[in-house]
Every structure is written in C-alpha cells, then in structure tokens.
Amino acid sequence: MKHLHPTLFALALCGASIGAHACATCGCTLSSDAAMGYSSSAGWQLGLQYDFIDQDQLRLGSNAVSRAQAAALNPDPGQEVEGRTTSRYLTLSVAYAPSADWSLRLAQPYVMRSHSTYGEATNPLTPDQLSWAHVSSVGDLKLIASYLGLLPTHNLGLQLGLKLPTGAYGGPDAAGTGVVGRRPVSFGATGNAAGELLDTSLQAGTGSTDLIVGAYYVQAISQNLDAFVNGQFQAAVAKKLDQPGADYRPGNQGTLSLGLRYQAHPDWTPQLQLNLNRKSHDQGALADRSGTAGTVAYLSPGITLNLATSSQVFAFVQLPVYRQLEGFQLAPRWTASLGLSHAF
Predict the structure, then answer these.
(1) Mean model confidence pLDDT for the chain
(2) Is the pTM of this model over 0.70?
(3) Domain of residue 174, CATH code
C-alpha cells in the first residue's frame, strides 16, 4: 500500500473557535489528513491552511427561512434576528514525527470574523437596525499527538489532544454592568445592539480547555484508489468562564469523514470526502442554548498537487447536502479551504 499513515496533520486542522451562535455546525469539517495525503516519513512539517465560511442564509430545522419570519416572533419570546457572519481562519501548524509510530502537532489559528445582527427587532427590518462587530485576533491553540504503531502497515491510528484557551473570549458579567473573560469584542456604535458585547460563541476563543480524541483507518481498494474513514470527538473539560450568572461551556462536537483518493498521477490527486458533524447545545448563562445544536453533512470535492518532493497544496469546496439545525441559525451555502505543507 502507498501513502499510508497520516502522521503530521491531525483530524481537524481548522482549530479556530467556530461561531456556534451563528451556526451550530458551520465550521470547517474537512479532513486535512486526507487532503494532504498519508506520509510515512519522520521529521518536521510546516502547514498553512486558509478557510472561508460565509454564513448568509438563516435556517430553522432543515429549511431556509426569512429574517421577517424570525422577527415576527418578537417581542415575545425575544428572538434575535441575525444578519450575516463571515469568518476567515488562517491556521499555522508545526508537526514533528520522531518515528513511524508517533507524531505531535501544534496548530494555531488566526480568526478574522465579521458579524451583523438586527437584535430583537420587529418587522419591518431596516438597514439602520443592523449592528456590526469585527474580530481579528489569535484563536485557540490545538496540541494533538498521534500513535500509529497498532498495525505494521501504519494505516490505523489513534489521536489524543487538547484545545487550549489562548484566544480572546468572554461576555457580560452577571450584573450586566461589566465584562468577564479576556478582551471580548463589542459591537460598533450603530444599530440595535450598539455597544453591546458580541456573543460569547462568536469571540475568537471559547475560554475552555477541550479534550480531543480521534481515530482513522486507511485502506487501498485498488492500485490507484485509497479509501479512508476518520472520526473525532471534542468536549470541554475545564472552563474559565465559571462565575454564577456569567458562565459558558461550548457544546460537545463529533465529526466523521469518509472519502476516496485517486492516485494514478504522481503530480495531482483528486479526492472526494463526505464530512458529517454533530454538535450539542452550548451551556451556561452566556450561551444561546436554543440555537447552538445541530447535525450537518458536507460533500467535499477537491484536489491535492505535489509541487515538489516535499511540498503539497490542496484546494477543496464543501457543499452542504444535509442540515438539521435546532433554533434559528445562520448557515453557509458553501465553504472553501486551501492548504500548503512542506516537509523537512
């Protein structure tokens, strides 16, 4: 078998804090392991990935809905009417594999996000009601270790890691007169939410330490075709936002990816992935518990190019094929990912 064991890129290179309030499961679910191929080489590797997620469609359950429908619920029970969330993530990763059995990777994202909301507005909605907030800062760091010594072919691996609260996070205190957390972003001076703090789930970080566990399996099914399956589960095990009335814990999240890689040509590899994601409700006084859970599936075609012996680049588009979202949530019509890696 060729190109076995994904040592240097862990299951979720998109290590940023995804805006759960805007969409429970809108973030990058692409398997970067498979996108970059499965190298058996020990040594160092640098990676850079760019992810673009434009959440411009308001949805409820499995259907798209208008903002007027959400606004019709106001003023009781008080439904926020969101405008748009556009997120860009630039993630730098450094990995080291001392042998064919072990690897360790650090992934540090930089989060660039703009978010708009009408607040708890009633019809008719007008542009002057929109408030805007802009995030541009470091996100939460991920550290993931991989063990691939279970089989002599190194095509079955286990992963264990942590997401650390290195990004800015926070929200209003219990009294509503102060701030908890570290450098949370606020809305600008216009619109219905002028001067208010951006939703806690839309900040660059979550303020939580998360445990990450994962596994994968790769198998050649013909001379030029490889199939793979990998999965990951992430759950917060500690939180910095723990004050009564001002606490927050992001919901648990699980991903499962299946795909095929066609490797008949040495310089380019077309690939197709199916990426599934399930997220549970956020918890705490600063959480939007009614609109942060859901299940989505993306069909992700893409291609990987071998630029040189030790360099690769990939490009993928993710297209939603199934969405079941709980509560009103902003969702993307498509997402895009570009990545580059170089081995030393």
Answers:
(1) 89
(2) yes
(3) 2.40.128.130
